[in-house]
Every structure is written in structure tokens, then in C-alpha cells.
Amino acid sequence: MAIGSLVILLFFPSWFLSVQTREELKSCDFPAIFNFGDSNSDTGCTAAAFYPEILPYGQTFFHEAVGRASDGRLIIDFIAEYLGFPYLSAYINSIGTSYRHGANFAAGSSTIRRQNRTYFDGGSPFTLEIQTEQLNQFKARTGKFFNRAERNSFTRNFPKPEDFAKAIYTFDIGQNDIAAAISNGMGMEDSQPVISDIVDYFANQVQNVYELGGRTLWIHNTGPIGCLPVAMPAHNANKQTPVAAGYLDQNGCVQYQNDMAKDFNKKLKKLVVKLRAQFPEASIIYVDMFSAKYELISNANKEGFVDPSEICCGYHEDGNNVNCGNKGMVNGKEIYAGSCEDPSKYISWDGVHYTEAANHWIANRILNGSFSDPPLPIQYSCPLQ
Fold first, then answer.
1. Is residue 294 part of a domain?
2. What CA–CA distances, in Å, run from 226 to 166, 262, 296, 338?
3. How many domains does one find in the chain?
4. CA dist 265 to 13, 173, 216, 223, Å?
5. How far apart, in Å, are the Cα atoms of 331 and each of 238, 317, 339?
6. 202 inside domain
7. What CATH number should be reported for the domain holding residue 297?
8. Of 306, 85, 57, 290, residue with least CA distance to 172
9. What digits encode the pLDDT tens for the residues 177-204?
10. How far is CA 217 from the centre of its chain?
11. What is the residue range of the signal peptide feature (predicted)?
12. What's the pLDDT score for residue 1?
């Protein structure tokens, strides 16, 4: 065995110890993807349930608003492309929808824990608990069609019963739980029990997915929430008020908010280790989205992007904020908060969500396993047979 291969194996869990080199790995041939998350991976749930997105959302790739909080494709779209699947349809879509290769349960503003907020207050009824229950319903209802003696063309729009055990289950949720804690005035010290509770809730839902047959779980940690432009003083504070030393890091990100995200991620990674011991026949991959996104933010200019604090769509100047695609009054004058000329140069689309270009950059770096534990490319991340 090559020394390089030996070094890699020392960091892999027990279920991977029998593999000698990456060349010997067999592609998983996933038949479907089932995704859980918030607006970072919502492909149409919120738009179908409440109000549809409007242009310029979707303008870059789809050339129309398609329920995504970006100018184009999301990371989950690039995951689907990479695995050879069509883009995932939202579970509650009702017209012209095929779920043959999976379904997307993610919804904008969703959280792991239940929040005492309505949609109009920035909340969502589609918590992770609801999303995993939707998976339960989806599996049970589609299974009935395949259990009938006579199968018809209707079943071609659904995954086969055996596909659920072979599918990959992706999770990208938790950012809104951290944001809720911040909005409630919590700092690092008093957020500790809350973050622990959030992770416990997450563990329960992962166990639910496992009990429904999920054996390949691809879990994203949460990104650097303190680096979202809307969190930065340049967009939400009085410019006359000086920023205290240590409040911002070297990239202009709000340090304590990122520290809270890091604390969540640390506890999440410990949970993943625990779940691997609890479910040894499953493959549970921890994806460090925080590091991937922070690397992009740290090297924005080098990678061809403008300053990461800049926002492509919307109006955010001198304490005045008009959301992307909307009209508003600024200094007695009505303005339309449209898109920048070239979204591909921006990391932030609307101050909260990433542009297609940034999503593509990040996807390219997580799909090959560079930010994963264990460092497996996604197509090799299923359990050993």
C-alpha cells in the first residue's frame, strides 16, 4: 500500500477500513435524491405554498422566476447535475411534476426547531420535523401504487420502493435557527444550551430518516452567517457609530455570529460521530460548508468576485433597504430594487442568499470530497456493500 493511501485511511471510520485506494471505490449509482433544508436549497416549496418568486430571481439560468432564492441554480441543483439527475421538484408542487429521481422537502425560512413565528414574520411551518414527516407520507403513498397488481404509466413519476434505501439524503438546514437566536439577543455564552437543543432536534430527525430506510446521509453544516452582507454594519448600522474592536474579523464578517455558527457546527460534527456508531451500516458524511463558503469570501477578489459585502440585487444604502425585485420609497422617491449588471461577479445575490456563480464555485469544491469527513466524492459516499 502506498504511504499516501495509508495516511488517508487513518482518518476514515471503521466501515471504510477495508478500502485501500480511491481507484477501488465503486460508484454508488444513486437512483434518487431526497433533500431537506431551508431557502439555500428550496426549489419551489415556499413559492408554491405562499407567494411565487418574481424576477429578477431566476434570471441568469432559468430566465424566469422558478421558486429559488437566487439568480439561478442552487447548490442542490449542481448536486443533481453532478449525479446525472434532473433538478429536484419541491414536494408540494402539483402541476407537471415528476418525482422519479427524488423530491425536495426544503422550504425557505425553515428551521430545525419549531419557531413562534408565522410566514409573515419570517418563519416557516415547514420545520425539519415536518419535512421528514412529508418523506414518510411520500414513501407510504407512492408505495401503494407499486403494491397494486396492475402497474400503470402513473408509477413512472415516482421512485420505486427499493430506491429509498439506495438513495442519497441531503441535509442543509440550521442557519435560520442560529439567526433566530441572534435576533433574540443571544450571545455566545447564553446560546450554548439553545444550540445543544437544536442539535438534539436534528438528531431525532436524522434517526427518523434512517428508520424510513435512509442509509446515505450527506449532512451540510451551517455557513458563516456573520458574513452575510445583511449582517454587516455597512448595511444595517448607523455609519456614524464606530464599530467596536474585535466585532468584525479580517473579512468584515461579524465575529460573534460566526462563532455561534462554529459552535453549532462543532456540536453537529460530534453528533455525526455518535450517529456513525449508532448506525454502523449507514454512511454519514459531514460536509464543512462553513469552510467552503468562508474560503470563497476570503479569496473573493482572487476568484474574480467583487467585495463579498456587496449585494447584487436590491437597494441597501444609507440605512434604506428595499428587497430584491420590489419597489419602495427612498427619500420621497419610488425606486425599483433590481439586479446588478453582472451577477456572476457577486457572491451575494440579495444580501442573504448566494448567486448562481457563488453556488457553482462552492459546489465544485464540496462534490469532490475536499470539505467532507470522510473525504469522499459524493458519488462514492454510499455504504460499502
1. yes
2. 37, 11, 14, 24
3. 1
4. 19, 11, 20, 9
5. 17, 11, 20
6. yes
7. 3.40.50.1110
8. 290
9. 999 999 988 887 789 999 999 999 999 9
10. 14
11. 1-21
12. 34
- State the residue range of the domain holding 34: 29-146+156-306+355-380
The residues annotated as belonging to the active site are 39, 350, 353
Q: Is residue 349 part of a domain?
A: no
More confident residue, 1 or 322: 322
CA–CA distances in Å: residue 138 to residues 102, 131, 135, 141, 145: 10, 10, 5, 5, 11
Cβ(181)–Cβ(260) below 8 Å: yes
**Residue range 33-60: mean pLDDT, rounded:** 97
Is the residue at 128 inside a domain?
Answer: yes
Residues 87 and 156: beta-carbon distance below 8 Å = no
**Three-state DSSP class for 350?**
coil
Give the β-pairing of 216-220 and 315-317.
unpaired
Whether pTM > 0.90 for this model: the answer is yes
Tell me the one-letter amino acid at 42. D
Distance CA 243, CA 43 (A): 37
E strand segments, the chain: 33-37, 102-104, 168-172, 216-220, 283-287, 315-317, 320-322, 327-330, 333-336, 372-373
Cβ neighbour number for residue 193 with a 10 Å cutoff = 8
Burial 94-131 (b: 16+ CB within 10 A, else e): eeeeebbbbbbbbbbbbbbbebebebeeebbebbbbbb
Cell reading at 267: 456540536
Task: Answer for the pair 347, 300: CB distance below 8 angstroms, yes or no.
Answer: yes
Tell me the residue length of the chain: 385
Measure CA 10 to chain center: 29
